[in-house]
Amino acid sequence: MADDAQPHEHEHEHVPDADAREKAEAEARRRLALAQIRQYGDPALRLIAHDVEEFDDDLQQLVERMTVLMHEAQGVGLAATQVGVLRRLFVFEPDEDGPRAIVNPVVAERSEETELDDEGCLSLQGVKVPVERATRIVLEGKDPDGEDVRLELDEYASRVVQHELDHLDGVLIIDRTDDEHRKEALATLRPRAVLR
Ligand SMILES: [Zn+2]
After folding, report:
1. Distance from Cα 120 to the centre of ligand 1, integer Å
2. pTM summary value
3. What is the pLDDT of residues 68-96, one digit of tens each?
4. What is the pLDDT of residues 168-188, one digit of tens each?
5. Whole-angstrom Cα distance, residue 77 to residue 71?
6. Are strands 100-110 and 136-142 parallel, antiparallel or unpaired?
7. Is 167 within 8 Å of 90 (Cβ atoms)?
8. Which of 2, 27, 54, 96 stands 20 to 30 A from 10 (CA)?
């Protein structure tokens, strides 16, 4: 999922040139990362991922690679299907607590209360659409070492994980929004999909 937040203000002063160079480098890294993330029109985004069975080195490396890509793309979540790997796992970082990965996630509880808010997606560049999500969710699954995890999440974190869970079932935010916003989003995405 893409991050809506403004870039963090620097606490100390920079020489203007160094600041500009830092920004340009971050932007270059963001573009490189996005180029490695499957974009709308790629069939991998529409496929259902399979449960992870082996918690081996390959899985650890995948989690590391996805975490780096999420950071460099300046996103708050990334699912394996977005890097063309059809396995049920995603990484996310909705707050300052650092990145986390969850493998074979299942929804244990979901609040009846929902909230409508705009969402972006690293695979649908330039698109932001309102999506209704449960305000609170409990997820159960494994960490990359195969240990059981249970996460109780609310507000933004709840939204982020529901977005990433959808990716594991081939569901995108344009499927979850209203007709008007879907039409607008498709108009933004179509020229790119044809160019690929
Ligand atoms: Zn997404």
Report:
1. 7
2. 0.89
3. 999 999 999 999 999 999 999 999 998 88
4. 999 999 999 999 999 999 999
5. 9
6. antiparallel
7. yes
8. 2
